Amino acid sequence: MTEDIDFEIDPENLPKRLERKPLGPPSVVVDDLHITYRVFGARRGGTTRQRTSLWDKAISLGRPDTGPITEAPAVRGVSFVAHHGESIGILGTNGSGKSTLLRAVAGLLPATSGRVFTSAEPELMGVNAALLPRLTGERNIMIGGLALGLNAKQVRESVPKVAEFAELGDFLYLPMSSYSSGMASRLRFAISTIRTPEILMIDEALATGDASFRKKSTARIEEIREKAGTVFFVSHSLASVRAMCTRALWIEKGELVADGDVDDVADAYNAFVEGRTNASSGAKLR
Amino acid sequence: MADHTADALLAPRLTSAQAAELASSAGLTEMGIRPPLGRYAAQVWQRRSFIWNLSASRAYSKNQGSYLGQSWAVLRPMLDAAVYVIIFGFLFDSSAPGIDNRAAFITIGTFTYTLFQTSVMSGLNSIPSNLQLIRSHRFPRAVVPLATVMTETVLFAPILVAMLVITMVTGLLPGMGAVWPTWSWLLLPFAAVLLAIFSSGVAMFFARVGARAPDIANAMPFILTLGRYASGGMFLISAMIPEGAWYRPILLHQPVAIYLELFRAVFGNESLIPMTPMLWLEAILWAVVVFVIGFLYFWRAEETYGRD
């Protein structure tokens, strides 16, 4: 991946502010969600729990540099209710648990405790764009579409449409490992929206697109929202969150810090980030 | 953490009971819970073209990135067989008394065991190596180990053809009986399908184990080597194990030994290994029973795949 990821968005490429529509019935209910990762081979000390039982000592004998399994809590007790027709931005510094939260709500990552209810199967678009990097874009469209639950005929029919939307050109028949990060994320977006999802989650995936693709994808997201869908949007660009969302959640160290109108939350978040000196977050914020 | 200004922005939090009530009144379904067995099996069946496409694409890309490419699928078991033929066919040539063509005997055993071995190994790694796909889309996870075994089965087709040719060539070696094509060779694909169904069951079982404890991937090659000997890959179990030993019936009727014997029987060149209906029945039974057990065991942990 040679391209730099550009988190900056030119103001003229942003759509006009979304109009606030009356909210529909609930589409996602998250109740006290906890997610804990198991990390193998973490260094001793730091987060590693001190284990003193004979068995634990025995199994870590051969691994002087590694502790036993470390448990890293990524999401700690998040609850919220989302409604149809809502577009929700998720803010938080790097490592605050935003992606983990989205994966869990999408049903891709099992919750350690807590429950998630949804009105339909959410579709998640992550940053890791290549599904099967050694296969061509065309095979990836086939496999992605089939994974979404379409039948083979529907997927074959949608291949040209997807390829056109993703602007792949001749690269359609090259392995995905040869794609630029922008091409890969365009393809991923196009595959995810083959079927209009009721709940769409976008995890930084549009950051690598160029201006014209951003316009196209923003229009597509608008279309989905219009069909009474719910959109979740993770981005480090406050400007695009303000433009694309009506509501925002702010997560810090796995806990929900703020939940409310996008402007209020974005202002508070901005003040928090600017107030931190030597912020660990590498992303630029306006 | 960031307690300034924030509290005012938090929406009132629902209790768990309120949240569950709100969800059920809005007709929402819970995510991340295991679907009932019947619906799960139906979902897997619905995704059969997904399984097929995934495995065909994998089979195609599997040996890319080496000069000989797809030929390695055939070359690898050939080299395996060559080693065993030299050792057990010529050096320790008493390992299969009563067998006319030890080279063919060993070739068939080795090539056939390859399908089982590669299926189990790739099944074991199937969840970790497809994490990207699993974390991108929701689909019944049994698709993943099933597709990996199907990949190995697709790759087995050229291996099967090579096995036919090599077996005939071994008839030209000094001291080995001739091997001629017979009508029973047409049954080979059916034997391969039964072995693939059986291997899928084993692969689904180990896919769950491998998803939870990656350590097993280090131990598995040894277990599989042991299995090769315990299944009579290169010697005749009935001749080498003393009559009346308590483990003799186990070794003779354990599934992998049955499949190796079935393949040898289908080749039909050894009078000592006849093809009997009983052999087919045993092979079918093992395939069905092991597949069902593997599927159930895999399904029981459906909601946990994709977690670190």
UniProtKB/TrEMBL annotation, chain A:
Keywords attached to this entry: ATP-binding, Nucleotide-binding, Transport
Keyword Ribonucleoprotein carried by entry: no
Keyword Lipid metabolism listed: no
Signal peptide residue numbers: none
Residue intervals of the ABC transporter domain: 56-278
GO molecular function: ATP binding
Family: Belongs to the ABC transporter superfamily.
Protein name (Swiss-Prot/TrEMBL): ABC transporter ATP-binding protein
